[in-house]
Structures
1.
Amino acid sequence: MRVLGIETSCDETAIAVVEDGRKLLSNIVSSQVDLHARYGGVVPEVASRKHLEMMMPVLETALGEAGSVIEDIDAIAVTYGPGLAGSLLVGVNAAKALAYAWEKPLIPVNHLEGHIYANWIGVETLPQLPALGLIVSGGHTDVVLMRQHGDYERLGQTVDDAAGEAFDKVARLLGLGFPGGPAVEKMARTAKHTGPQLPRAKLDGPYDFSFSGLKTKVQRIVRGEEGEVPPREELAAAFQEAVVDAVVTKAVKAAEANGVAEVLLSGGVAANLLLREALAARCPLPVRVPPISLCTDNGAMIAACAYYRAQEVGEFDPLALDVDPGLRIG
Ligand code: KG4
Ligand code: ZN
């Protein structure tokens, strides 16, 4: 089954063709990073207009690279939430139009569920369920028990900023560009000494996170309110270490307590090398991490997820689909 996956929840216009939920035939991502960099973050209006402009060229390239024409596609999958309403609308309306005009089934996909399915793409052996999904992105930090395809229980989440959001805010404090995650990671690598010890939040929920206090602490240090200001590289390293430690500690605890077979890391922050290495080193269970290109937003993860969704969705009226910007998982 060939699925065309469309993803426009934030600032990437992304379309991919995936066969049987795991074989990647094409994966085109048109990033708007340069467009938003001058504002230091994603501007929703600008994002949706760019999605409109890029939708058809990205679609044509994605089909072309897959050696397909639209007639070869068995279903159209699209992210309908969570994300920016205006951005989601562009993808959802494009998907509805394609499904309606070409009489293809339309499969709505939850972006967060999609992130987890990046772990199904191109693998030799499929992930074993139940698994622990760890979604660490710009908008979410969720610990999810995945019992079956489509059966999730959210065990923990962030009570304030998402991990990626904290990376982006700290990058701004350190005078680095947008998106902040890769910039902070790069700078941290050049640190000669361990930086200051930064706090780990203590929360009631055993698998919940909080990153805003950490960001405020970095802000106080940068402003000289905590004494001598350490080199920026050391602050970047100390911050990264604190985020990774919090995420890994809770993920390992959740995995052990819930008897899962594997841990599935995903989301933009999963591109972070320290996080990838620390989780693999500290988790006694098998850990899967998607290739870096499938960690940040892409259409392939949406198409992969849709393959497993297709059976449940059945006959779905393409014109009935609407966006759900506040959609959650579990
Ligand atoms: O999953 P994603 O592409 O979009 C959302 O669904 O949010 O994640 C984007 C987030 C941004 O906050 C970005 O700074 C972060 O992922 N990120 C990283 C790295 N690469 C991207 N954070 C830490 N280290 C990285 N290497
Ligand atoms: Zn995402």
Note: The radius of gyration is 20 Å.
2.
Amino acid sequence: MSLKGKVALVTGAASGIGRQAALTLAQKGAAVVIADLNQSAADAVATQIIEAGGKAMGVVMDVTDEAAVNAGVDQTVKQFGSIDILVANAGIQIVHPVEDFPYAEWKKVVSIHLDGSFLTTKAALKHMYAAGRGGSIIYMGSVHSHEASRLKSAYVAAKHGILGLARVVAKEGGPKGVRANVVCPGFVRTPLVEKQIPEQAAAFNISEAEVIKNIMLKDTVDGEFTTTEDVANVIAFLAGFESNALTGQSVVVSHGWSMH
Ligand code: NAD
């Protein structure tokens, strides 16, 4: 499916899954805005796309800051003429048992995932509705949108919440041709996951190899990590699927870790 003539904004696109999503959407022909806290890394991804012959721009955006989100979305429309695809991907992980979870850290995790998804959706929808050419909103869920793991209360609660937001946006946006879907990856070896391996080894008093084999990949069908390319290809498919037949759904990309 070609995305020629489409404009995409990807949050958290300076690293990991978001970065690969930006590269893949650009390869399919979309102009891509790389929105991230990390300006220099965002600009580096944009430069890589431009050097390969694509259109891209880096913008600094904290997805929990309404003014910054609105400014980044407005800048996207000003630069490229529209916003057709939003990938609400920015995210972090903080792990603690519930009884010790610092409230400030709970709020930080929930806010980046849920407030960030809400604020970017709100800003993008206004332009999508005004332009009257529909759109595709893709949320970064997780196997943790459907399953639970110890120590991840804030993340699991937020990722479950994203399903609810996506379903409401699917219902409200449907009559205007705006689709909303959630991509739910299993473990992908990005900086977010690399950080968790020693943390979980310490928390459960096991080796790092055991964390990978017995926790992260235990429930997969083949003991394999999901890759950033796997996830980006599903994002590109959802971005290019032009009818409301596929909306309000979650697509789990996890080597069978979760089969919801
Ligand atoms: P990553 O750490 O490689 O990248 C996350 C990016 O988000 C970073 O560039 C960071 O600067 C940016 N970011 C963080 N807070 C931000 C904010 N407030 N505003 C804007 N940008 C911000 O992580 P990743 O593994 O690529 O994760 C991306 C998304 O995928 C997250 O939503 C994560 O929950 C989800 N996910 C990851 C995995 C996995 O195994 N890696 C699995 C399922 C879901």
Note: The beta strands are 7-11, 31-36, 56-60, 85-88, 135-140, 178-185, 250-253.
3.
Amino acid sequence: MSIRNKIFTPVLLGILLSYHVQGQSVQTKTEKYRPQIHFTPQAHWMNDPNGMVYYKGKYHLFYQHFPGGNKWGPMHWGHATSADLVHWEHLPIALYPDSLGYIFSGSAVVDEQNTSGFGKDGKVPLVAIFTHHDPKGEKAGRNDFQNQSLAYSLDEGKSWTKYAGNPVLRNPGIVDFRDPKVMWYEAGKKWIMTLATKDRITFYASPNLKEWTKESEFGAQEGGHGGVWECPDLFPLKLEGKTYWVLIVNINPGAPNGGSGGQYFIGDFDGKHFMPVDNKTRWLDYGTDDYAGITWSNTGERKIFMGWMNNWTYANEVPTSSWRGAATLPRELKLEKVNGEVLLKTLPVKELDNIDLKSVSQFNIEVKDRLKLVKGPALKSPFKLELQADQLKNFTLSFENKLGDKLIIGYNEKTNNYFIDRSKSGDISFNQEFKKLHTAPRIGNGKKMNLIVYVDVASVEFFADGGLTVMTDVFFPQKPMDQVYFKPGASNAGYILKKLKYTPLKSTL
Ligand code: FRU
């Protein structure tokens, strides 16, 4: 969706299902659809995660936020921090709109060497690089209403000062000119900004974060072009001692199952140009609800990713009450070679194991027909299911409640596809597209199937084959799902599940 089409709602106070402590609202844990293990704003709208930076034991998460309502509106940067990526502390809004416009997406870096000169008395500056979106310029039909600006913090991210010389990178006349992701390029001793510029990426370089020079463009002929390119990320990752460069490019619309999604390229970067290994379009997540995902900066060789668990196709309509929007689980990105091809794989971060409650495992379960998995104590979301099978045969895994809502994950042997069917998962009435079936290629090979499924109150995250195929989907059941059924395809009754592990999860709220 273009920014123009996003719906602006005037400030609505609404009825908040939250109470106030020292001026900060505290969310209740029990609102219908309130995720229990995912980051959500206490109240009101959120979209993209922004400015993710790790500093002095804290993961900072900023996010596109409209504190005046539950639909997209004048953007601020909301702020939260976490010591473990799982439990979040809500902090005051970090950046407010100003005379240069709304605060759109961007990134943050630790300017260790004080290249920017923002540091003072030995205090290391954290620097945020974001897009200023001027709604007046947009309304007037100008083509230069998005520009890149800076803000810095000298108190480890608690408070932020906007740079008086903003904007630092002026728009040359490109309507979509936004979402700067900045990294330090050690080999060239310079900052590199990866910027989404309509249908391509433009790389800029700077010695001090304030003056930027264009280096090159990438992508006019590569990748998906069903929509506008947004929220990119560029970083190195090692595999078998060799460094590869990964370029993430979010796109909306144009994702494989419709609407918003994230594609990626593997290649090389020489400080000026990105050179992909080939022209193929690859996707980070085949579900419809993992958008604008990028990685934390300052985490060394570890690359931690988080997306917005939503899709612009229906983001403004999903039936939540006092807030709208959530982040995906934090995930770690690694590389793996499959048939000689270097691919990204995505798995939930290991810190999530800290919310595991007592698990139940079963081995060598013969499933003849539809079988209720997890007997005994009532199953209750949030939970995690891990399954292992050594046969590639049709199956469905159905998450259900007594009111008849079902969310089905499955595998189709003929097409070698995984799928998610949320057409009967509860409230699907708010958007025509929502009931569509989502499919994903099985990318891993081999006969063994390893599946990890995280189920929260209103979302499912499915990691297959070590994270080579990922699907993230939200859903809105009348009541949380509390039953799980496994069913082999008609032609292969007698399915053996090598292992099934059910782990209830502790709410992080
Ligand atoms: C992606 C996006 C960004 C933009 C922001 C505005 O979801 O459209 O390109 O900066 O959202 O909220």
Note: The chain is about 0% helix and 45% strand.
4.
Amino acid sequence: MGNSATTDVVSNNREWWKEAVFYQIYPRSFNDSDGDGVGDIPGIIEKVAYLDELGVDAVWLNPVYKSPQADNGYDISDYRAVNPEYGSMEDWSRLLEELHDRDIRLIMDLVVNHSSDQHVWFRESRASTDEYADYYYWRSGDSGYPNNWESYFDTPAWSYDEKREEYYLHLFTAEQPDLNWRNPDVRAEVFDIVDWWLDHGIDGFRLDVINVISKAVGLPDGDPDAEHVGTEHFINGPDLHDYLNELSGEGFGEYRDEVVSIGECSNIDPETALDVTGRESDGIDMTIFFEHVELDREEGWQHREWDLTELKSVMADWQAAVEEGAWVSLYHSNHDQPRGLSRFGDPDQFRYESATMLATWLHGHKGSPFVYQGEEIGMSNVTFESPSDLDDIWAQNHWENEREAGKSFEEVRGEFERFGRDNSRTPVQWSDEEYAGFSTSEPWLGVGDDYEEVNVEADRASDRSVFEFYSELIELRSGNGLLSYGGFEMVRPEDSSVYAYRRRHDSVDHEYLFVCNFTGDTESFELPDTVEYETAEPVLANLNKLAADPAAVELRPYEAIVYELS
Ligand code: GLC
């Protein structure tokens, strides 16, 4: 189906980012070109051809700005400079050029809920310099913490500053003080930064934790039962919509219609997403939501059993919001989550099958698919032998809390292996060479144990290549109006083994049917007879079977088939 059909399906709101597949690069772990054990921008440039072969349309680059790396770049000390470990501004410009030469767009990360404590603003603010005194949230500490809020990283949300003799707010690490968005000067600084990067030719931003930028007036106490105490006073806060509208007008300005803004929104539901992607504010085009990656998690780090019908219900609600005018990023992995393959699939027994089934399942929904580095070769979670294997500050804080509660590492190790962010941050496994071909010296974070079998070279040489399957899937979506804009309808929502759905539109004479077996067993699936068709042609399948009629089909473990029904 070419472009004319796309025009049929969507009459007026066609956008490049609704038709694009994004690839997320975590620069520290992607590819190291200078052998210091840390990934870098020239290392990314070496792999642009690889991204092109995969067929992606855009790259989301996690922060590469100057940063002391307390939270791996999410603590920025200079928003207009590249971290020297990663290269130079010239390298960055070259990357942009190389990507654009291949029609791949570049999205940068905008981290402006907080800065680094090493940023000149914070240094001046600590010194109470007039201009900057009010750039952050300062409160007197005469009677201890100003309120009971907790950070997202399992610590109090306030730290005392000896110099200013006051507490400052940080919803993440103490090295990430929260910027005071109520100060118009702060907002003007942010909009300048946005403008500066847009002038450099980028194609949009992923807005880090953007729905916590507005804190309730007076910073009151929070509900002690909340997972992170205080969230009701800063998630989707009172001025969020105004701030986003300003960001759109003064920040994105003349670029607004060409670029994309992708908002990471914690604790957001579909109804609120509709507000932030259009109804009440114009600052966000697309929401990164979390409900589907939280199904297996109780509060904190505890595992919870879940059922496929719950996943269906979460996804169906989000698909309904998309139908109403919201837009979402479709992902099962990123740098903050354990590997989706370990969470939803079975990398031990069915690596190829479950990696490709999950890809099919995800990409068929309505929204913009995101591939997280390494996902396209089936990388999975890793093991942590001792606390010294934990790099992530959140994991380190959690371990500290567990240790203080009297736990041994052995007792809680499983929590890190299941949920730890380090799982997805290990170096990309390029080959079976030492350090997985990522670097010539010991990487900053250990390489996965399985790198000799699971690596790009081996995968691409195999006749069951996950990479090859991803590229076919991306190709199927490319220019396909029905998949980008057609409606979504779940089939047999009560089935707890097979996840099936239709994608269709009144103006198109065929439809797609996705059928995905989420189990390691053979499952039978029967299409309800309300689904009418004359011919069923499988257009993509992860296992070698291209004939079965979906009216009644036996699906092998993790089998996925996409049918075109006419
Ligand atoms: C976002 C980032 C995460 C970071 C946090 C604080 O959730 O994705 O990596 O730790 O914000 O900036």
Note: The CA atoms of residues 512 and 564 lie 5 Å apart.
